[in-house]
Description:
Elements: H1 3-15, E1 34-52, E2 55-74, E3 83-94, E4 114-115, E5 128-144, E6 151-168, E7 171-191, E8 194-205, E9 208-211, E10 219-236
Amino acid sequence: MRRSLLLSTAALGIAILPLGAAEAQGPTPFDQSHLYFGVDVGGAANSFDNDYEGISVGGSLDSVVGGFYLGYRFNRPPERIWSFAVEGELNFLGNNSCPAPDDESPDLVADCFVQADGAIQLFDASPEIYYNMDWVARLRALIGFPMENGMEPFFAIGAAWTRADIWDFEYAARGNFTGVTLGTGVNIALSPHLYLRPEVLFDIYCPKTYQWGDLEEDVIKVNLHTFTGRIGITYNF
């Protein structure tokens, strides 16, 4: 998945956000309480860097992403200009998994590593960093602004979880990352029970610190964040 596709998807989601949502009046398809379920597909740019004594070595890998979400929309009385929903989701990432390097397979194909920027080469003088991230789970609150034309721009905030494995020839950073997720998009009513949802998200994970050597200063901080552009189809029960 090329970064240009991600940016195009993001531009689409932002460009179609309707203006003047605060002026919405009267009943809309988004007013009633209901349970909803959706599936989505898109692309993600997963960026990371490994910080060692102020020197960062890292890169970004693009991947296809797809998954599902389940949420509940709370009743919005007609006099309110905003709506509220809570949802959980699970997305799976593809085209970015690599096996850990070992003595039998020290060289992997080009798609399985990123080249470190700059001339600095750490960890056995190797610029290859091997990276794996298979899934992302999120729990979010969505604030929407229903409009009479059947569209609802929304903003989302919540928590994100993932498991990332980052290898170099001298250490392995493996573990669960927890962070904050931010998003914006629009629900477009295709029928009373079916919505289209273009959306962009940005996940910012808390750094993790790893001890890779015997000395106290042999510490590496791993930073990870993900940008996602996707389109979903939602069914309201």
